[in-house]
């Protein structure tokens, strides 16, 4: 399930590329006093992914922008929506907005046999842990410094890492009887087309900053069966990779072809 937030800029300002921590803070403030407040910082996946404020670029007073939120937990999005209706001030650091409208969206990768493409709207955060490095002969970079996925590591450890993180979300949000993405002998995606890799500084918590490496992708899929459909839809709801609570790994279906039909693109792919 998705929540689309329509925003209107309240002042001229530059687009803050280090928005992650500040945007996360506004969303957590929306959860103050709710049943979800106690989950802040408990280490478990919250089940919330979100886009950047888009379109990207410098902001003029009166500009209309949007934000997309996704979650497998309908109550979580409902709690955020209730707060945004009551308190329409939506300031992200030095970017002041006001909420003008809210709407819900249903997004689905499609029934078995559907082919499509998922594109990452925000960078995918992939840290290669020891078992990933050992499996592919990747040396740790600098002692305790995290090893972030880079193109020279090849696509296989990236593939395994995003399946591992999705498995963890599956174990929290899916029924116990349902097999997870690492329980089946098949890949999530058929094609991995790297768009770009880039580094950026990120405030993880107040006073703790990291220089991370993230990547953007176009990921092709063919829905094999209902189990695979659940896995792909969970990725739409929770994001790919790690640090989703900071806004990384948010994904969209940008093209979808139902069996026997021509390709649907853009907004039509969400129908």
Instruction: Name the structural class.
Output: alpha+beta
End-to-end C-alpha gap: 13 Å
> How is the main sheet built?
6 strands, antiparallel
Strand % is 25-35%
Number of domains: 2
Fraction in helix = 10-25%
The level 1 CATH classification of the largest domain is: Alpha Beta
Can you count the beta strands? 11
SSE succession: EHEEHEEEEHHEEHEE
Radius of gyration: 19 Å
Can you describe this structure?
By secondary structure, the protein is of the alpha+beta class. It folds into two domains: 2-105, Alpha-Beta Plaits (2-Layer Sandwich), CATH 3.30.70.1890; 115-270, Alpha-Beta Plaits. It is 23% helix and 29% strand. It is built from five helices and eleven strands; from the N terminus they run βαββαββββααββαββ. Strands 6, 7, 8, 9, 10 and 11 form a six-stranded antiparallel sheet that branches. A five-stranded antiparallel sheet has the order 2-3-1-5-4. A hairpin with a 2-residue loop joins strand 8 and strand 9 (208-222). Helix 3 (130-136) runs antiparallel to helix 4. The chain starts with a strand and ends in a 6-residue tail after the last strand. Residues 267-271 have low confidence and may be disordered.
Kindly summarize this structure in a few lines:
By secondary structure, the protein is an alpha+beta fold. It contains five helices and eleven strands; from the N terminus they run βαββαββββααββαββ. Helices cover 23% and strands 29% of the residues.
């Amino acid at each position: 399930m998705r929540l689309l937030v329509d925003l209107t800029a309240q002042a001229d300002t530059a687009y803050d590329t280090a928005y992650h921590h500040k945007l996360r803070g506004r969303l957590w403030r929306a959860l103050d006093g709710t049943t979800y407040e106690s989950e802040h910082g408990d280490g478990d996946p919250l089940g919330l992914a979100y886009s950047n404020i888009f379109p990207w670029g410098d902001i003029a007073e009166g500009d209309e922008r949007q934000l997309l939120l996704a979650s497998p937990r309908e109550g979580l999005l409902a709690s955020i929506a209730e707060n945004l209706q009551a308190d329409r001030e939506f300031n992200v650091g030095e970017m002041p907005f006001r909420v003008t409208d809210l709407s819900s969206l249903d997004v689905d990768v499609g029934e078995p046999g559907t082919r499509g493409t998922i594109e990452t709207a925000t960078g995918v955060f992939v840290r290669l842990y020891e078992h990933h490095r050992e499996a592919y002969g990747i040396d740790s970079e600098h002692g305790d410094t995290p090893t972030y996925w880079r193109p020279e590591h090849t696509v296989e450890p990236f593939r395994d890492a995003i399946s591992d993180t999705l498995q963890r979300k599956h174990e929290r949000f899916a029924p116990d009887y349902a097999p997870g993405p690492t329980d089946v002998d098949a890949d999530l995606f058929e094609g991995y087309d790297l768009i770009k890799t880039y580094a950026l500084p990120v405030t993880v918590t107040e006073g703790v900053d990291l220089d991370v490496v993230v990547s953007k992708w176009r990921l092709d899929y063919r829905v094999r069966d209902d189990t695979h459909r659940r896995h792909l839809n969970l990725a739409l709801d929770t994001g790919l990779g790690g640090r989703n609570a900071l806004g990384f790994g948010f994904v969209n279906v940008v093209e979808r072809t139902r069996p026997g039909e021509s390709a649907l693109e853009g907004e039509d792919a969400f129908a």
